[in-house]
Amino acid sequence: MKRVVVIGLGIFGFNIAKDLYENGIEVIAIDKNKEIIQKIKDFSTKAILADGTDKEVLESIAIQPDDVVIISFGEDLAAATLITLHLKEMKVKTILVKAPNEDHKHVLEKVGATEVIIPEKEIANKVAKSLISPNVLDYIPLSEDYTICEMAPPSNFMGKTIGELHLRGKHHIEVIAIREMLPERLTMVPRADFVIKDSDILVVIGKEEDIKKIK
Prior knowledge:
Helix content: 25-40%
Strand order of the largest sheet: 3-2-1-4-5-6
Structural class: alpha/beta
Radius of gyration: 22 Å
Order of helices and strands: EHEHEHEHEHEHEEHHEEEH
Strand content: 25-35%
Number of helices: 9
Number of domains: 2
Largest sheet: 6 strands, parallel
């Protein structure tokens, strides 16, 4: 993966930098808080104590057009907007920005952010999904209608084969993988004679409304 530059090390920025670094990604972390820079030193390739809104700082670390830059400034729209503008002038192709709400998201997209993330909204959606469909463990929206999700199999699935359940015909969903916990392994596109166990986790694709029906 390309080098990642994280500007702003609040909870969101710090944890993204740490996770990326621990997975072998080159991470440059920037913040003007000395205490935070001391903490991120062990979880980044390079930690820089500086004001990320200063274009000279961005130029001094030689940010390249192919670098991925993540901006995390909480409620400070002015700072996030200014850095986004600087990065656009520097021809950076991938600029991900954290925003607190849709209004900020709209502004940041207008000035050139490649993607704007609203973490609180994403978490709220996941919590709501988990309450609406308790057996859904995680999901990835593909469009307004379709999603891929991990789910614990309902009790009436236990001991039956994929073929016996007729999931495509009856429920309009497709099992694309099964994560077995005992023993631990991943089976991609399971065969029709695969027998579902209570320790399995199903990875399915389909419309959200159809997935809800089998909860």
